[in-house]
Amino acid sequence: MKKKKKKAKNPLHYIFISYIIITFLFSFLYYLPFTRISNISYIDSLFVSTSAISVTGLTTVNLVETFNVWGKILLMIQMEIGAIGIVVFISYGFMILGIRITISNLLVVSKDQNQSSIKSIKRLSLSVLYTSLFFQFIGGLFFYSQFRGKYDTALETLLVTAFHSIASFTNTGFDLFGNSLISFQKNNLVLIVTAALIFIGGLGYPTIMEYIYKYNKKKSLFTRINMRLHFSFMILGTIVFWLLERGHAFKYLNFFDQLTNSFFLSVTSRNGGYAPLDIAELTLPAILILLVLMYIGGASSSAAGGIRLTTVSVLAAKMFSVIKSQDDTIIFRTSVKKEVVDRAFVIAMSFIILITVATIMISIFEPFQLDLILLEAISAITNTGLSLGITTNIHSVSKIILILLMFIGRIGIFTLIYFVLRVDNQKLKYVEKDLAVG
Known about the structure:
Blueprint: H1 11-31, H2 42-53, H3 63-66, H4 69-84, H5 86-97, H6 103-112, H7 121-147, H8 154-169, H9 188-201, H10 205-213, H11 221-245, H12 255-268, H13 284-296, H14 309-323, E1 329-331, E2 334-336, H15 338-365, H16 370-381, H17 396-411, H18 413-420
Antiparallel strand pairs: 1-2
Helix pairs in contact: 1-2, 1-6, 1-18, 2-17, 4-8, 5-6, 7-8, 7-9, 7-10, 8-9, 9-12, 11-12, 11-13, 14-15, 15-16, 15-17, 16-17
C-alpha cells in the first residue's frame, strides 16, 4: 500500500513561525535584569519586542529610562532583523557556515521579501544588508556632529547616533531623546537626513537594487510604480501639511522651517514614526490626511508598512478600468494579472476590517476619544509608530490588541491567512448570476 505523500508546507508557515520565535525570544531578553535599568512588566516587554521586529516604533515605556546599553543594542539588532527580514538573516547564517542554500530555502526568502520570483532573490538577499548598512553609516556621519554636544562622552554619542540611524532607515521611529524629534524641530539637517533615510528605507530593496545594478536600463513595472507614487505622495503631503498648518502648528516657525517640518511630516507618515512636533497640535484635517498616508504606507519589500504603494496603484487602476468598462486592469500600458488585483482587494479590505474591529474593541476598555484610538490602531497595523500620546496609558487588553495588529502588519495578511487557514485551490465553478449593487 502506497503511503500518501505529505503535503509540503507553504513557505509562509515558516515565516510566521520565525517571527513568533524571534518576538518571544527578544521579549524574554528585555525582561531580564541585564538589559534594563528599571522594572518592566512582561506585557510591556512583549510590546516593545513586537514593535521592534515589526519596525513600528510604538512603545508603552520610555526607552531611555527603561533599558541600559545592552537593551539598546538588542533593540538595534531586532530593528535590523525586522526591516531586512528574519529569513534573510538565516540565509546569511547558512552562507557563513558554508551550508548550501537550496531552492526551497530561496522560496522562503522570496516570500519573506514579498517577491514573486526566486531568480534574483539570492543576489537581493546578499545585497540587502550591505545596502542598509551603507545608508545607515552615511546618515550616522551627519547625525554624530549634531548629537555630540548633547552628550558627555563620544561613546554615548556614538550609541545614540547608531540607534537613530538604524531606527530611521528601518522606519521604526524609536528614539533615545525622550520626545521623538521635537527638540530638533528647528534643526533642518537632522530632519532632512532622517527623512532621507526613512524615504530610502521605504523605497524597497528591489527598487534600490535595480537602480544600482540596472541604472541605464528600463525599470520594471514594480520600480516605476514605487518611484512615481513615493515622490508624488511625498510632494503632495508636503504641500497639504504646509497649507493646513502654516497658521496653526507651524505658525511660530520661519518659512524654511515650515517647509522642512511639512516635508518631514509627509515622509514620516509613511511610515517613519518620528514627529518634529506633538501631533496632537495638528488640525483635524491634517490628522485625517496623516491617517490616509499611514494607511497607504510605502513600497512592498521595504521597511515601510501600510497596504503598500503597489496595492493602491492596482486598486486605482481597477477602479478606472471598471469605469471605462474594460476587462483588463492596465498600469503603464501593462495588464495586471487577475490574481494580483484580487490580492490587492483582500489586503485593502482586511486592513479596514481589522482597524474597525480593533478600534471598537479598544474603545470598550479605554476612555479616550475616537480619533486618539483610531490613530493608535492604524499606526499599529500600518507599522507607522505615530501616536497622540495614549500608548503609555492603555489597559493590558488594549496592549495585546495593538501587539496583534503590529504583528499582522509586519508578516502580512496572506501569511496569517495561510498559517491559520488551510487554503487549497478550488477547481469548482458555480452558476454565474447578475446582482444589483450600489
